[in-house]
Amino acid sequence: MEIALETKGLSKTYRGLRKVRALEPLDLAVESGTVFGLLGANGAGKSTLVKTILGICRATTGYAHIFGVDSRNPEARQKVGYLPEGTHFARYLSGRNVLEYFGQLAGLTGARLREQVALKLKLVGMADWADKKVSKYSKGMRQRIGLAQAMLGDPRLIILDEPTDGVDPEGRHHIRDLIIKLGKEGVTLFLNSHMLSEVESVCQEIGIMYQGRLLKRGKVREILDEMSMRDGKYQLVFRTGPMPQNLPPVLAGATRDDHGFSIAVADREEIPRLVDALRDSGVAIYGVEQHHASLEEAFLRLMDDGNHHGVGGRQ
Ligand SMILES: Nc1ncnc2c1ncn2[C@@H]1O[C@H](COP(=O)(O)OP(=O)(O)OP(=O)(O)O)[C@@H](O)[C@H]1O
Ligand SMILES: [Mg+2]
Question: Does any ligand 1 atom lie closer than 6 A to the CB of residue 16?
């Protein structure tokens, strides 16, 4: 399998008045064709990682490869589309002008430039606004122009830093569909985001950053499965009719609620035993399901663990 993006011992310490170890040495590989989401609280180091990968920030140690080429080599960066965090464009230009300008920087000219610009404007839903000045755009519209800019020339790797920042729900939905579509076309996407539900719906793989370190990394499904278990136990939710005052002994440890109870079991094979015991007690069972953690729940728990165990700690 081809690796689209790889870092080895990549780190960044900002040296200003105060030294900030924004990124601890990081090894990361993202396979070609993956939609990868990087999560983390404000200041975790997500933007620093992206900027250091692209050589916008000089790495303190280590290096990054883009499709096997050192990212300090301009040839490597030509293969990447990038939407920086909080983009600002010249306000007196129209959206189309902005894209033409960036398209030229990316080496597009003539008919191909015009065609690419028109195509990407349409893709982000800005065709009708293309000839209005950027100063008239809302934040979400500027963000869409930024996204179109990152797609110019059909790069095989697109890095998006907070692509839906400031975009309204409809626009976010649109961008989400666009990311899914690009992913299906085989484009590798790397996105930084705070929008956990969005990441959950578009990304196959995620990384969770905490204080400059990658706390967790893997397939979304696997991380959610792992986080759905607590202390090695499955959480089951039973929906039942009225329950007797004295619960059968197998239900020791269950937590009652208005609609039934929830219980932790070490083995799913315990489900039939529980069902039998409930039926013997005359309880009607309307449903049983395993509790699945959302990415939001998983993220908050990981952050909580990180805080308690003092992971990282910047100097
Ligand atoms: N140019 C800089 N000079 C000094 N410190 C910086 C600089 N840029 C970022 N930092 C610091 O590095 C750390 C990581 O910042 P970074 O912007 O990478 O975080 P982030 O995860 O992208 O956060 P957010 O979610 O808010 O975008 C923070 O402590 C930040 O204050
Ligand atoms: Mg950031």
Answer: yes
**How confident is the model over 74-97, as pLDDT tens digits?**
888 888 999 999 888 888 999 999
Mutate to test the pocket of ligand 1, among 10, 11, 21, 48 (most ligand atoms within 8 A of CB): 48
Residues ≥6 apart with Cβ < 8 Å to 200 = 220, 224, 294, 295
**How much is the average pLDDT of 169-173?**
87
Q: Report which protein residue has its CA nearest ligand 1's atom 12.
A: 22
Coarse DSSP helix, strand, coil percentages of the chain, rounded to the nearest 5 percent:
35, 30, 35
Instruction: Indicate if ligand 1 lies below 6 Å from the C-beta of 286.
Output: no
pLDDT at 313: 47
Separation of alpha carbons 41 and 209, rounded Å? 8
Q: Which atom of ligand 1 is nearest to the CA of 47?
A: 22
The verdict on the CB of residue 17 being under 6 Å from ligand 1 is: no
Name which CATH class applies to 3-219.
Answer: alpha beta
- Interatomic CA distance for residues 113 and 248, integer angstroms: 73
The topology (CATH level 3) of 229-315 is Alpha-Beta Plaits (3.30.70)
